[in-house]
# Entry
Amino acid sequence: MLFLEQTSRMLLAYTAVTLLGIALFGRRDWFEQADVFAVLFRIGGKMAPVEYLRDEAEGLRAIRLRAPFSGLLSEGPERISLLLFVLFMLSSTAYDGIHDTQLWTGLFWTNMLKWLQPLWGRIWARRRIC
# Structure
């Protein structure tokens, strides 16, 4: 039950921030530049093999197939913040993939446990290293 309460609070907070951002900056500017999910999904859409060509006045104009990831090459990042966002997403994904591997544990945590040993004693440190 606690999980549902936390999730509903987070969704309400996200909705409030989004509505406030739309009121302050306008719908188009907010979703093109500030909303994390809109930016992430727009980048994901540029990687897709399907392209939707839109016209502001007419709406959907055509659907075209293209090579995967070719949408990323058609235009560069508009701002440095978009480049930093992509780098952060890539680095966090890479970290999520490597942090439980034996290589990562051996490189970082084996030596770290020796330094932190006085905090929790010898028995726990020996169990974690072996």
Observations:
- DSSP finds seven helices and two strands in the chain.
